[in-house]
Design goal:
about 325 residues, alpha/beta, eight-stranded mixed sheet, six-stranded parallel sheet, about 35% helix, globular, binds NADP nicotinamide-adenine-dinucleotide phosphate
């Protein structure tokens, strides 16, 4: 392996640009190549970020022998196909959230990574922020007693940009609030409570047929509960709270990219805790993936593949309750149009 971990980016859209910025801030990483559906886009992106190698085809990017890992930055419906392309070409993969549209796809991706002995991780960058390190530390120290409930939401109004940001509302690209932003509260709940025993949910649908907003209650053993919602047409509080028998951890507005929490405990003054935060929060997941590759691991201990799959399974179960499937899903059991 070269001195620096050599990254490629597949799909040159808006989040790819933010990721390219982040790579420039990580000493142990270099952005060596980009791949796009067109030469024009690959070259424009390559010029903007001074990327040495540009390809007007995802296959050509995957076949680049001088790459260690490829970041998948395409719409949800392509995550599985693009990831498997890169794994089969011998590359590690960091795939944008959600790992997959459904559990069938997720399992294929994970099976492929394990069979090829290549690194794979869902780019759930929130999990790697110093804020989440602190949350895990407080929970491990029993700072709020026995954890009983969690509340979290992520919603914003995208209608002004909907034409420009078609992937958010296009069912053919697996758009919708659940997969796009609902996955963040679900991942938080998964980090705190693990896999749910029961799921209760409701969704509201927009003119293109995708879920515009949704509400979810997950149940866990010993009566523990997580209450969450997500939205693409509604401004929500964008807050989270982890609540226990002896207090509460409040994550402030914008918690999935945040650096502040308040520890609230009866009889004690509230404690505002501010954590370090890089301007570009992707640097933490990049450093984690570089470390895993350097040390020869096939997956990341903080965001393991079985957990990413369990989150996708929860989203499948939620969509089943709504009777909602994407147009390209013919084989999702018990799901009707
Ligand atoms: N981590 C985060 O904070 C965060 C934030 C936003 C989005 N995301 C995730 O990042 C991924 C991409 O989102 P984005 O906002 O960057 O999307 P975007 O701006 O639309 O870019 C997606 C790129 O994918 C490629 N692509 C391939 N087939 C496509 C198709 N049929 N339609 C549209 N684009 C296609 C295009 O690149 P080429 O033309 O160059 O091939 C396009 O520029 C999604 O999985 C999303 O959930 C993550």
């Amino acid at each position: 392996m070269a001195d620096k971990i050599r990254w490629g980016i597949l799909g040159c859209g808006s989040i790819a640009a933010k990721f390219a910025d982040a790579l420039k801030c990580v000493d142990e990483a270099e952005l060596a190549a980009v791949g796009s559906r067109t030469d024009e886009n690959a070259n424009a992106f390559g010029d903007a970020w001074h990327v040495p190698r540009r390809y007007g085809s995802y296959q050509k990017l995957a076949d680049d022998k001088e790459l260690d890992i490829i970041y998948i930055a395409t719409p949800h419906h392509l995550h599985a196909e693009n990831t498997i392309l890169c794994l089969n070409a011998g590359k590690g993969v960091l795939c944008e959230k959600p790992l997959a549209v459904n559990a069938r796809q997720g399992r294929e991706m994970i099976d492929c990574a394990r069979a090829k002995k290549r690194f794979l991780m869902e780019a759930m960058w929130t999990r790697f922020l110093p804020l989440m390190d602190k949350v895990r530390e407080l929970l491990a120290d029993n700072a709020i007693g026995e954890v009983r409930m969690l509340a979290a939401d992520f919603g914003f109004r995208c209608s002004d940009r909907a034409e420009e940001k078609q992937r958010l509302i296009d069912p053919y690209l697996a758009g919708g609030a659940l997969l796009d932003v609902g996955v963040y509260p679900l991942a938080l709940s998964s980090m705190v409570f693990g896999k749910p025993l029961g799921i209760h949910s409701a969704g509201s649908f927009g003119r293109t047929g995708i879920d515009e907003q949704n509400a979810m209650i997950l149940t866990f053993d010993q009566g523990r509960l997580a209450v969450m919602y997500s939205a693409l047409q509604t401004e929500t509080t964008q807050e989270a709270a982890i609540m226990g028998t002896e207090g509460m951890i409040r994550l402030h507005r914008g918690w999935w990219r945040g650096n502040k929490l308040t520890l609230v405990r009866p009889g004690k003054s509230e404690q505002l805790i501010e954590l370090p935060s890089h301007d570009n929060g992707f640097v933490y997941e990049i450093k984690a993936a570089c470390r895993d590759l350097r040390e020869g691991r096939g997956e990341n201990a903080l965001m393991p593949l079985d957990e990413s799959l369990a989150i996708v399974q929860t989203m499948d179960a939620i969509r089943k309750q709504w009777g909602f499937k994407y147009p390209f899903e013919s084989d999702v059991e018990n799901v009707k149009n």
